[in-house]
Amino acid sequence: MFHRKQLTVITSLVVVAAAAGFVSGRGSAAGAIDPLQLAANGRTGVGIYSSSGETPEAMQRAAALNVSAYEPEDMEGGEGAPQKTLIDNDKVKVILVAYKKGFIRPGALRRRYNTLLVYVDPGRYTITKTGANTPVKKEVPDKLAPGSSVFHRKDSIVSELRVDQDYRVLYVEMK
């Protein structure tokens, strides 16, 4: 019974984050449809998408990079940004991370769990280095819409990013 209550809290958090996106970013029912559509990438700032670097082929290429270190358990997701653990049990860990403009989140680390990110606030970030820790050829900012989300696979490699506008994000790690 205890686990059912925690699952209810997690579900509620995700629904509230999505609703915040509808309320703050959409004025009509027609406009509210867009965030539910699958997005090709994060550049539009709306939708639900899976990181393009995590296809089976990309995961095989990433395995060849010999990145073996995982994110430190006490800094998963935020990598030093202010964060608060909301739920942590044997099934799931939910972390609220508050990124501030100018923060650099280090990369070249593996994700320990399958992770769903739900963006609470509008924001912007730019990937500056690939998972292999090499600078990207052309930096392109990604926009974030409240309620949008992205899924990252277990063992995928974190890229370095620079926060261009403050935002908060919920990390829902499935153990």
What would the principal axes of the Cα set say about the shape?
globular
Task: Estimate the mean pLDDT confidence.
Answer: 78
Are there runs of 5+ residues with pLDDT below 50, and where?
A: 18-37
- Per the CATH scheme, the topology name is Jelly Rolls
Name of the CATH architecture = Sandwich
In short:
By secondary structure, the chain is α+β, with helices and mostly antiparallel strands. The chain has three helices and twelve strands; from the N terminus they run ααβαβββββββββββ.
Account of the protein in words:
This protein is of the alpha+beta class. It has a single domain, classed as Jelly Rolls, CATH 2.60.120.10. The chain contains 3 helices and 12 strands; from the N terminus they run H-H-E-H-E-E-E-E-E-E-E-E-E-E-E. The chain has helices spanning 2-25, 29-32, 56-63; strands spanning 48-50, 83-88, 92-99, 104-105, 109-110, 114-119, 123-129, 141-144, 149-152, 157-158, 160-165, 167-174. A hairpin with a 3-residue loop joins strand 2 and strand 3 (92-99).
Structure keywords:
175 residues; Jelly Rolls; 6-stranded mixed beta sheet; 4-stranded antiparallel beta sheet; 3 helices
Q: What's the arrangement of secondary structure elements?
A:
Layout: H1 2-25, H2 29-32, E1 48-50, H3 56-63, E2 83-88, E3 92-99, E4 104-105, E5 109-110, E6 114-119, E7 123-129, E8 141-144, E9 149-152, E10 157-158, E11 160-165, E12 167-174
Parallel strand pairs: 1-9
Antiparallel strand pairs: 2-3, 3-12, 4-11, 5-10, 6-9, 6-12, 7-8, 7-11
